């Protein structure tokens, strides 16, 4: 069964016995209390954005969080949609160490697609599910100030080297006032990862990086990174549901965590050390993965935190 079929099946109205309803509520109630009035930053991206059933399920999750007294903040990506528009306009797209080389014409397209089409699609999806979403980007109220990236670590040697990737930024200052104002009302902020430089230039910021900087500045209870992978796998290819910072570093050293998962986990560690309680890498192709992660005992991905909780039910 495909993810789309699973999402469609999950949306069907089926009869649930009172006993099952009571068990579900009993399992979710501690989490509802734990996260009441807490901030949860969610990075929405990957194939889930291109699947209507999964996108609708995600929108439902966000609305449920808001109705439950949690303050969800959505930061979205849009790589595939940007690539499609660049192809349509016959503009070449290149990558250096995973970041899109963004010249002046490209950054204009990136802003148009991210802060325009995609942002409003997500806003509309949330509103269709009964929420009240508002779309903004990092430019609004100087939410995100970034600097142009001119150096990056070499993937093989890990030594810094000079790069010329154009208008691509790294956050240096976060001013969350506008997000606070929106979140403290009945509205849900949906944010495109476009930032300003100190000299007023538009910069394209990686969505994971943007969401991480925002979550750290706001001391969020959780940062959820929706991706196209299940999470961190052990050497037997089984999902590791929970890691401390020390354990995560050890798995990088012993080669269990490899490839593109290394910078993602290193980013999780940085966010936790900056004050976020935990970061969770979640497979966004699983319908209602946000609710599964926050409101069930088993969660839905790999959680990286400063300390493990004494009881699994705390997750």
Question: How would you sum up this structure in a few lines?
Answer:
With 315 residues, the chain is an alpha/beta fold.
Features:
315 residues, alpha/beta, Carbamate kinase, 8-stranded mixed beta sheet, two-stranded antiparallel sheet, 10 helices, 16 strands, globular
If you had to describe this structure to a student in words, what would you say it looks like?
Helix content is 39%, strand content 22%. The protein is of the alpha/beta class. The chain has a single domain (3-7, 31-314), classed as Acetylglutamate kinase-like (Carbamate kinase, 3-Layer(aba) Sandwich), CATH 3.40.1160. The strands form 5 sheets. It has an 8-stranded mixed β-sheet with strand order 5-10-2-1-13-15-16-14, sandwiched between helices. The chain has a two-stranded antiparallel sheet with strand order 3-4. The protein has a two-stranded antiparallel sheet with strand order 6-9. Helix 7 packs parallel to helix 9. It is globular. The relative contact order is 0.15.
The low-confidence runs, each spanning 5 or more residues with pLDDT under 50, are 10-16, 310-315
Topology as a string of helices (H) and strands (E): HHEHEHEEHEEEEEHEEEHEEHHEHE
In one word, what is the shape? globular
Portion of residues within helices: 25-40%
Number of helices: 10
Give the mean pLDDT.
85
């Amino acid at each position: 069964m495909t993810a789309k079929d699973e999402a469609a099946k999950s949306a069907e109205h089926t009869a649930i016995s009172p006993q099952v309803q009571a068990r579900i509520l009993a399992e979710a109630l501690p989490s509802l209390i734990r996260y009441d009035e807490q901030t949860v930053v969610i990075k929405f991206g990957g194939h889930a954005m291109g699947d209507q059933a999964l996108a609708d399920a995600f929108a439902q999750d966000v609305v449920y969080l808001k109705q439950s007294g949690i303050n969800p903040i959505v930061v979205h990506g849009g790589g595939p949609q940007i690539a499609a528009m660049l192809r349509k306009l016959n503009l070449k797209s290149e990558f250096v160490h995973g970041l899109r080389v963004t010249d002046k014409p490209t950054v204009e397209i990136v802003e148009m697609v991210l802060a325009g089409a995609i942002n409003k699609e997500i806003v509309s999806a949330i509103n269709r599910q009964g929420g009240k979403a508002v779309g903004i980007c990092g430019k609004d109220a100087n939410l995100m100030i970034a600097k142009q990236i001119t150096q990056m670590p070499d993937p093989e040697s890990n030594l810094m080297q000079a790069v010329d990737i154009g208008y691509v930024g790294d956050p240096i200052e976060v001013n969350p006032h506008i997000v606070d104002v929106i979140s403290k009302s009945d509205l849900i902020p949906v944010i495109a990862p476009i930032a300003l430089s100190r000299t007023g230039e538009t910069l394209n910021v990686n969505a994971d990086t943007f969401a991480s900087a925002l979550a750290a500045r706001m001391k969020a209870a959780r940062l959820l990174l929706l991706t196209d992978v299940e999470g961190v796998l052990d050497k037997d290819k089984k999902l590791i549901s929970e890691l401390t910072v020390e354990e995560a570093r050890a798995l990088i050293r012993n080669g269990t965590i490899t490839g593109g998962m290394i910078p993602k986990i290193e980013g999780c560690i940085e966010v936790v050390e900056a004050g976020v309680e935990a970061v969770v890498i979640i497979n966004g192709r699983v319908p209602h993965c946000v609710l599964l992660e926050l409101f069930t005992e088993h969660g839905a991905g790999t959680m990286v935190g400063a300390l493990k909780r004494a009881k699994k039910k705390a997750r």
